[in-house]
Amino acid sequence: MNKKYSTVRTLIGVFFGQDFESFGETIEEIMQSYTEYENATAVTNLKAQISELLLITDDNELNTLMSSLAERQFEPTSWGESWRSFLLKVEASLS
């Protein structure tokens, strides 16, 4: 399961982990940094993985999966977001 969403896991662990301030103060700023640091393939993979995650209609299932991927390095509620709203903001910033 974690391997399937490895790009999402990397995004959360590296860019939204404990040193997130190095990349920005908002989701949008951090995603701008992400697109500057990562190559086009990683960005394309991230878009595809997020699209697939957003197809999960059961929020409990999505929350469980995302919490597993985050490995306690990020919790969207501390940013005033749910996992779904966080993914939607990340997706919008990649458009």
Please write out the topology:
Elements: H1 6-15, H2 27-37, H3 40-54, H4 59-70, H5 83-93
Structure write-up:
The chain has 95 residues and is an all-alpha fold. The chain has one domain. The chain has five helices and no strands. The longest helix is centred in the middle third of the chain and has 15 residues. The protein is globular, with a radius of gyration of 12 Å. The relative contact order is 0.19. The model has no long low-confidence stretch (mean pLDDT 93).
Note the run of SSEs as H and E: HHHHH
Overall number of strands = 0
Large-scale geometry: globular
Give the percentage of residues in beta strands: under 5%
Proportion of residues in helical segments: 55-70%
How many domains, in number, for the residues?
A: 1
User: What profile does the largest beta sheet have?
Assistant: none
Structural class by helix and strand composition = mainly alpha
Low-pLDDT regions: none
Any idea what the radius of gyration is? 12 Å
Please give the alpha-carbon distance between the first and last residues. Answer: 26 Å
Average residue pLDDT: 93
The helix tally amounts to: 5
